[in-house]
Amino acid sequence: MTTYLITRPPAKATALTSALLEQDAEAKLLYAPILDPVGTEPEDWEEVAFALIRGEFSWVTFTSVNGVLGLDTLAQGLGQSLVELLGTAQIAAVGRATEAALVERGLLVDFVPETQSAAGMVDEWLIDEEWDNPMGETILAVQGTTASPTLEEGLTDYGYTVATLPVYDMLPYPAANPLTDQNPAETDAQSGSALTLGEAVTALATTDVLIATSP
């Protein structure tokens, strides 16, 4: 029997759990999350929200599922769905998981790079042929509080005006009220519960495969 140690909470590792168990039904899966995403409300949130509703952003970019969850939470606080909030803005997602989270909420994703990273988004960004120069076009980058400036700087270099909206922070696990799109109680019973740091250190001695994922 192979023992896997995964650095995510069980509720956020369901797809990985299913894939591993499909390959090896006898696998032992342990979870040792390090950080939890927690929603934040930026000081200028209401101003940004009204700008979104007025259609002032040409594009809205998402560089993680956590960003989708964070903005969705803020939108719900205003009594809005993401579809209502984002209106006619074009949507860019960093990868397939982020795209799936947006599609689940009724949004059409216009751009997903082949290289699933902020750098990939910049390298593969599609300049609308109708715009000889993107000057005057504004992009909203939805991200975490500690996000790399790669996307913002890259799009700014193209001539866009880029506004950033930090909608979540990463706190030590377990954090109160973490962002999640799944009730932990609904997680497959085979997944089990998350280990404490001490338990995880002990478990490493008998772990065959360590899977380090993004939080």
Number of helices: 8
What percentage of residues falls in helices of 4 or more residues?
25-40%
Largest sheet: 5 strands, mixed
Widest sheet: strand ordering: 3-7-6-4-5
CATH class category name of the largest domain: Alpha Beta
Task: Return the CATH architecture of the largest domain.
Answer: 3-Layer(aba) Sandwich
Rough outline? elongated
Q: Would you tell me which CATH topology of the largest domain applies?
A: Rossmann fold
Structural class: alpha/beta
What is the average of the pLDDT values?
89
- Rounded Rg: 19 Å
| Strand segment tally | 8
Tell me what portion of residues adopts beta-strand conformation: 15-25%
SSE topology string: EHEEHEHHEHHEHEHE
Domain unit count? 2
- Spatial separation of the terminal alpha carbons: 26 Å
Low-confidence stretches: 183-191
Protein model, in words:
The structure is a single chain. The protein is an alpha/beta fold. It has two domains: 3-34 and 173-211; 38-170, Rossmann fold. It contains eight helices and eight strands. The protein has helices at 14-23, 45-53, 65-77, 82-86, 96-104, 118-124, 150-157, 197-203, and strands spanning 3-6, 28-31, 35-39, 59-62, 90-93, 138-144, 161-172, 209-211. The strands form two sheets. Strands 3-7-6-4-5 form a five-stranded mixed beta sheet. Strands 2-1-8 form a three-stranded parallel beta sheet, with no helix packed on it. Strand 6 (138-144), helix 7 and strand 7 (161-172) form a beta-alpha-beta unit. Helix 3 (65-77) runs parallel beside helix 5 (96-104). It is elongated and about 60 Å long. Residues 183-191 have low confidence and may be disordered.
